[in-house]
Amino acid sequence: MIYYILILLGILTRVLPHSPNFTAVAAVALFSGYYIKNKKIAFLVPMAIMLLSDWKLGFYQWQILASVYASFAVVVLLGVLIKNKKWYFALPTSLAGTIIFYLVTNYAVWQFGTWYPHTVTGLYECMASGIPFIKNSFAGDLIYTFALFSVAELAVFFAKKTNPSVAKLIAGDRVL
Fold first, then answer.
1. What secondary structure does DSSP assign to 88-152, as a single string?
2. How far apart are the C-alpha atoms of 128 and 121, rounded to whole Å?
3. 175 occurs within a structural domain
4. Which domain holds residue 46?
5. What is the pLDDT of residue 162?
6. What are the pLDDT digits (tens) for 128-138?
7. Orientation angle between helical segments 25-35 and 131-162, nearest 10 degrees
8. What pTM was computed for the model?
9. Which of 31, 48, 75, 81 fits as disulfide partner to 97, beta carbons 3.0 to 4.6 Å?
10. Structural domain includes residue 108
């Protein structure tokens, strides 16, 4: 059930009116890597968000599209890598994911798109043009990451408090 809620959240933040790049997709990707035990599902959740929302929004040049999807897969991997850390490590990790997404996708736009000349100056222009988008990405990724991880940790806290046997099930492992 939680998978569907995460997918719905991600889709809604992409298709409803919003500031460019201010979505929950990266936060859901990080959350999936951190909390979902089945790693195939953890990777499928953000891919489902992107595929279903791109179906509605429209697909574009496959190389650039692939860079976006691959960037979110890397963010899932970052979630897996911090799994043994405290949940609040998600916030700086979210920032790292935002930077990776920015660098990979802007490079792909420069490399495979026609908007910028394929020169060092063109790459610089492409990266500079992405700065307004990375500001929104930082804000969205931090806000959605904080919200998702806080809600999950509060649920775990209250579950342990109300039912001590849950603590044994949860101890040292994620619950989804």
1. GGHHHHHHHHHHHHHHHHHHHHHHH-SSS-SSHHHHHHHHHHTHHHHHHHHHHHHHHHHHHHHHH
2. 10
3. no
4. 2-170
5. 79
6. 999 989 999 99
7. 40
8. 0.89
9. 75
10. yes
